Amino acid sequence: MFRYTINDRTGPEVSRQSQSAVTAVMGMQTTKSQILALLKRSAGSTVEELASALSLARMTVRQHLATLERDNLVTAHEVRRPTGRPHFVYSLTDKGEESFPKRYDRLADMIIDEVALLDSSEIEGLSPVEKKVLLFRKLARRIASQYAQRLEGKCLEERVLAVADILQAESGFAEWRRLGQGYEILDYNCAYRKVAESQDEVCAWHLELLSRLVGGDVRAAEFQSHGGDCCRFIVEGGDLAADGGESPQ
């Protein structure tokens, strides 16, 4: 049901299900789509890196990149090396970023539904900022409750996997991996990027939602809306489900 894409930085701890699904997905994509996907994940790659990842000739990759540049989906900047000739690193433009799945319509629907559920007494006397904070906190609570049954009784690692699956269904570019102490969840495609760039409450809402879904402490190591290559979340602490932790409320 869920599809994953390859992250060269994830190492052997990424689930095997992720890796096998990636092969199938990549095989169904056009070469240009595969290049865009690789650039999305890497935040910038050279012709040589793209050619190696796709098992294509460098000339073939250059031809596809020229077309993508013409369509204003990718851009290139020169990087000088200590020795040898300079090389070009290709990355996505804003138009290229927006070519990936976005869920602005879903966010609008959720906010409208949540506003309709607000009681006037809840927002009486609150500042505009406090109203937004309250709205997104209640939204995180409501969405988490929708997944409570699915997560009930699961150990921490199973919860992390389930949350990665939920993000994967939302954005198409999420995965997880084990760390020395805890876990890491990576989402390479912020489905609400343009809104989050001007509304910090969206990132805070997403972080609170993940904490409720996981059932423990989650902190954000980076957000795409704040200049990060991806939205990276660190899940810390012990196995709350095994220790009798509560399901998301």
Descriptive report:
With 249 residues, the chain is α+β, with helices and mostly antiparallel strands. The protein folds into two domains: 11-98, Arc Repressor Mutant, subunit A (Orthogonal Bundle), CATH 1.10.10.10; 104-235, 2-Layer Sandwich (Muramoyl-pentapeptide Carboxypeptidase, domain 2), CATH 3.30.1380. The protein contains twelve helices and six strands. It has a four-stranded antiparallel sheet with strand order 3-4-6-5, with helices on one face. A hairpin with an 8-residue loop joins strand 5 and strand 6. Helix 6 (104-117) packs across helix 8 (128-146) and helix 8 (128-146) packs parallel to helix 12 (200-214). The longest helix is centred in the middle third of the chain and has 19 residues, at 128-146. It is elongated and about 65 Å long.
How much of the polypeptide forms β-strand, as a percent range? 5-15%
CATH architecture title of the largest domain? 2-Layer Sandwich
> What share of the residues lie within helices?
40-55%
Number of domains: 2
Cα-atom Rg, whole angstroms? Answer: 20 Å
Assembly form of the protein: single chain
State mean pLDDT (0 to 100 scale). Answer: 83
Shape estimate: elongated
Counted by DSSP, the helix tally is: 12
The SSE string, one letter per element, is HHHHEEHHHHHHEEHHEE
Number of strands: 6
Indicate the CATH topology of the largest domain.
Answer: Muramoyl-pentapeptide Carboxypeptidase, domain 2
* Strand arrangement in the largest pleated sheet: 3-4-6-5
Spans of at least 5 consecutive residues with low confidence:
1-28, 239-249
Largest sheet entry:
4 strands, antiparallel
| CATH class category label of the largest domain | Alpha Beta
Sheet/helix structural class: alpha+beta
Quote the distance from N terminus to C terminus.
26 Å
